[in-house]
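FW: tagging you since you asked about this chain on Friday. Here's the raw sequence from the shared folder, copied in full. Didn't touch anything.
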Amino acid sequence: MSEPLRPVSDVRSSLSDLVEVLLNKGVLLNVDLLISVADIPLIGVSVKAAVAGIETMLEYGMMRDWDAQTRAWVQRSISRDVAFEPGEELLLRMPGEYEEPEPFRTWHPGTLYLTDRRLFLFRRDLRKVLWSEARHEIEGAAIEHETAMTGEPLPRIRLALAHRPSVRLIASRPERLVEILGAATPERVPAPILEGKLWYLEPRAGGAVWRGGEGRIVHGQFTWKSPLDARPAVSFRLIDLVAASLVEARSPSGPRALQIRTAGGDLALLAASDVGRWLEALHFESGILRDGTDG
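HL: got it, structure written out here
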């Protein structure tokens, strides 16, 4: 309800535009009307009203004066598949995602529900709560940005928790969620040791294929991910790196490629125009000894 509804002369405007404003933002009416007959004032009307969608009413506390039975009926109708605790009150609902950090970073989509007792992510098609946190454990929230592969800034919400490491969320209305939960001190996220374009020789049934993507060394972790993939194709902790060396290979970026081997027996071949920098960084960050094949 931050912006008032203003008259427009656009003939393309329709009833659907009005309904969209009412549902998503709402309208405040403040009307003083005087009815007169033959220049004699007879009736005075003073109207103050709020017209908005049910979820907006819930979010801004406009239903506080309604009876408990009506509030419970509205809550059940807009969240049929969600099992609320007895007496739990829904405050806010919006599309969102939760980041699962282990064993590798994965975003789980669903719907974020904020109540007076908890914040959780629900997946309707699975009828399952994917993540949940009690309100008293949430110390605050902050909006942070990370850069997409296209260079576009992407807003993320970091939740500061009382007794556990912070978690990250995506929300369709991050500012409103932070406003309700309270602001948290921005967390200092270490910059990547090295990141940039890398080619990865991906094994396939019909023969290995070089694929372009981005490599990152950060938080003691190496990852390679294509912008077309949902999750990294290569991911390992640097303490699990056993060997890293340059080998002869016909790669898209030159005659040499970076071969890495982990304690789990995984073997990967990577290539870049500055492949020597990646070798140096892996040697330095992992602490492994040079094997004399790095040229």
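FW: The chain has three domains: 15-51, 85-181, 194-286.
HL: agreed, and DSSP finds five helices and 16 strands in the chain.
FW: great, closing this out.
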